[in-house]
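Appendix C reproduces, verbatim, an entry submitted by the partner laboratory led by Prof. M.T., so that reviewers can inspect both the input and the predicted structure.
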Amino acid sequence: MLWGKPQVYFWQAATCIGGYSSAFLLFVLERDIFRFKTRLIPTGLTVATATVQLFYPISSPTDFQFVSTIGLVGTLSMLIAIITFIYLAVKSTGLMRKVCVALTVGILVYAVAGMTMSENLLSALDAAIPGIRTIVIVAVPIIKIIAFTIIAWGAVHFQL
């Protein structure tokens, strides 16, 4: 019952922070790698999604599922980062290839963990495997910490 009044505010704040963090990563990619050729559309889409998730009034389970589904749009924009690092890994050699593979794996794990927290997916999983919701809710932050560790290693060693 995440859509209840005290819990939903924390959920909205957390999804907004996650969305803005993803938007910052996309902005850096668009600025440094794409040289603004994407016209900041993925970054703007991610910021807009996070902002809608923060300010949308949630008063029923249907509202919560809708806002949770909107979050998938922002998470899917992370595919740009994954595709970019796969391309760089294919075109490079040595340490740069390892760094790009690490960044790809880290971002992919982070995005999949974030999508797993979608209410639509959690409901389906809970219907198929009763009690899995609690395990997923506990496991996702741990998985995201692992993903951030991988991303941090890649970011420290990344050089164009």
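The two ends are 46 Å apart (CA to CA). Additional entries are available on request from the coordinating office.
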